[in-house]
Write a structure and sequence with these properties.
3-stranded antiparallel sheet; 52% helix; alpha+beta; Chitinase A, domain 3; single chain; Triger factor/SurA peptide-binding fold; 367 residues; extended; 11 strands; 4-stranded antiparallel sheet
């Protein structure tokens, strides 16, 4: 009888513990005007945030990693609070999307993948469900329609356009444009094993050997060799090799704007040359040594008001709308009843992803 009693007591303890754990996992971490955000809700979102960052090369191991994870948790909860507040406001303003609107947009997203099977494969890869996509679509639509309603009366006058130009002249300049060809000789850099979250392929060559090869190419040029021909034969830059080493911007154009395409060391060396000259010493960067030939160099130019007008007419309304919407949401937040149980803890640093997550319409489920 005593043994049975012990078993019953043990079972009761286990059951009580299980209930306590279940209660903790779903405890409320925040409320927004009475709407609850539970730990389960946060954990679900965190799993996706964490997976996305890990796919970009972030690591949450060790003490530093745990600190970053704690900071990410707080920031994610804050984003969920903001999202909830926007959705509530959209409903109050009568601009929250209907189920039919959401279903139609989800169907359009699936169609962009080519087939439902490809869509489901992408969902699985990024740990998403159809409910996650519906939730994201509903929020993005609510946000967009609320934003448009709040900022509908924003108009920009001629005087505002002129004042904006006068106060922000530094923004309206044609940057230095570099027309250049390059020959790249790579080396294995132990300090750069990944790039944009991807492993950098090894070339089986150290820095000293790469510099020696680049120096040999310069000697060939000194002897009269054709730069374009050498680039096609020896350059290890897949983007420019077939074009005789011609460096292009992301739109495939040359010359390119300084500071937008090539490493700083490259641009500095290129702008030190005169048109038609090539570098007499190999130019070291984190990925390899370059031999550079300058074809053209256009200095920075200040745009006149008339030259900048079209850009301002496109930019200024956006700036003013963003400002108005931010002020509107700040007022909404002031009157909202928000309780964030993680807000009192000290902030930490969160790793930044190399790129913003894609929009819902792209062929990758966004966060």
């Amino acid at each position: 009888m005593g043994r049975n009693l012990k078993r019953i007591v043990a079972l009761m303890i286990v059951l009580a513990f299980s209930i306590a754990v279940a209660g903790c996992s779903s405890k409320t971490l925040a409320t927004v005007n009475g709407a609850k955000i539970s730990k389960d809700d946060l954990d679900k979102r965190m799993n996706k945030e964490k997976l996305y960052l890990e796919q970009q090369g972030a690591s949450f191991s060790g003490q530093e990693g745990q600190m970053m994870l704690a900071a990410l948790e707080k920031q994610t909860l804050e984003k969920m609070i903001e999202q909830t507040l926007i959705e509530q406001t959209a409903k109050d303003e009568g601009v929250y999307p209907s189920k039919s609107e959401i279903d139609k947009q989800v169907e359009e997203i699936i169609a962009k993948f080519g087939s439902k099977a490809e869509f489901e494969a992408a969902m699985k890869q990024y740990n998403y469900t159809i409910e996650d996509i519906e939730e994201k679509v509903s929020f993005e639509t609510a946000y967009t329609q609320l934003y448009e309603k709040v900022t509908a009366d924003v108009k920009v006058s001629e005087e505002e356009i002129k004042n904006y130009y006068d106060e922000n002249k530094d923004q309206f300049k044609d940057p230095v444009k570099i027309g250049a060809r390059a020959i790249l000789i790579k080396y294995d850099n132990p300090n750069q094993t990944t790039m944009m979250g991807q492993e950098v392929p090894k070339v089986g060559r150290n820095e000293e050997k790469a510099k020696e090869i680049a120096a040999g190419i310069i000697k060939e040029l000194d002897s009269g060799a054709d730069f374009e021909k050498l680039a096609k034969e020896k350059s290890e830059d897949a983007r420019s090799k077939e074009d005789g080493g011609l460096v292009k911007d992301m739109q495939g154009s040359s010359p390119y704007a300084k500071g937008t395409v090539m490493p700083p060391e490259f641009d500095e060396a290129a702008t030190a040359l005169k048109a038609g000259q090539y570098s007499k010493e190999p130019v070291k960067t984190a990925t390899g040594y370059y031999v550079i030939k300058l074809e053209s160099l256009t200095e920075e130019k200040q745009l006149s008001f008339e030259e900048a007008r079209e850009q301002i007419e496109q930019t200024l309304p956006m700036v003013q709308k963003q400002q108005k919407f931010a002020e509107y949401m700040a007022e909404v937040k002031k009157t909202a009843k928000i309780d964030n149980k993680l807000a009192e803890e000290a902030p930490a640093t969160v790793p930044e992803a190399p790129a913003m997550p894609p929009e819902t319409g792209s062929q990758q489920p966004a966060k």
